[in-house]
Amino acid sequence: MGQTLGCVQVDQSNVAIKETFGKFDDVLEPGCHCVPWCFGSRLAGHLSLRVQQLDVRCETKTKDNVFVTVVASIQYRAITEKASDAFYKLSNTRAQIQSYVFDVIRASVPKLDLDSTFEQKNDIAKAVEEELEKAMSHYGFEIVQTLIVDIEPDERVKRAMNEINAAARLRVAANEKAEAEKILQIKRAEGDAESKYLAGLGIARQRQAIVDGLRDSVLAFSSNVPGTSSKDVMDMVLVTQYFDTMKEIGASSKTNSVFVPHGPGAVRDIASQIRDGFIQANTNSQSCQCASPAKAEKLKAKGRGPSRFTNMVSAAETGGRT
């Protein structure tokens, strides 16, 4: 009914293009307008002033010959003052913008390797925006924002990159684990050293206490029992300790000790047993090595004969008894 009377309505965020006898006449703002068709006036079409978005997928290759798909989002809108240019100069706005995006991306990405492409995607987006702004402003369009929303390399390349990243993280984890084990080993060694040090102090104090106790026992026994010497007291103490040790070994269920046969009386025969053993060993050695009596006399003169050794052991035994 309104068109019959020559009245038209233009919605908000839109403009209408008015023609008179096929020639551009005016840009109609939102609201009600009179378009007398009887005088050759008509609406050629409507143009939206809203921000529109165009997603462009562009496949290209990087400097290191890796093919990637770059996804760019272009946000644009028509300029009200240049609505006639936006309506008449371009027949396919989206295709025109897509061509410019392809041109800029395929000129920028091949200059960068794959890692740099990910790092400098903002620079790529800025280059696309500048090129589009310069080109589309002549056609009545404004580029609001250009975003590089995704960079998709080949699936095998992505898998390889993930494996590299995983290997690097495993290496770091291994280093950290080794450092932790190193710290544990150091702390364990420090604790073991401290434990042994304290154990050594305990043993030293124990032995000192034993020595002090033996000295006091010997002095007390010698003073209380007339006619006993210090040697007699020490022999009795050694025999007592011997039987105490045998008692402790017999009481243990996990004893793994082997004893050379000897008895308590061996305490007094230690010197004679050592002397006889050395004399026998020395005699066997001399019988194997000496081929003549002259050589034996020579060895005796040098102090290696059995008689001198026997005298030394006897002298040591005599001195110990004294």
Automatic annotation (TrEMBL):
Top-level taxon: Eukaryota
A UniProt-annotated Pfam family: Band_7
InterPro entries assigned: Band7/mec-2_domain, Band_7, Band_7/SPFH_dom_sf
Coiled coil: 157-190
Domain spans labelled Band: 5-165
UniProt entry keywords in alphabetical sequence: Coiled coil, Lipoprotein, Myristate
Primary site of residence: membrane
Lipid bilayer topology: Lipid-anchor
GO cellular component labels: mitochondrion; plasma membrane
Keyword Lyase among UniProt keywords: no
Subcellular location: Cell membrane
Name of the protein this chain belongs to: Stomatin family
Species of origin: Trema orientale
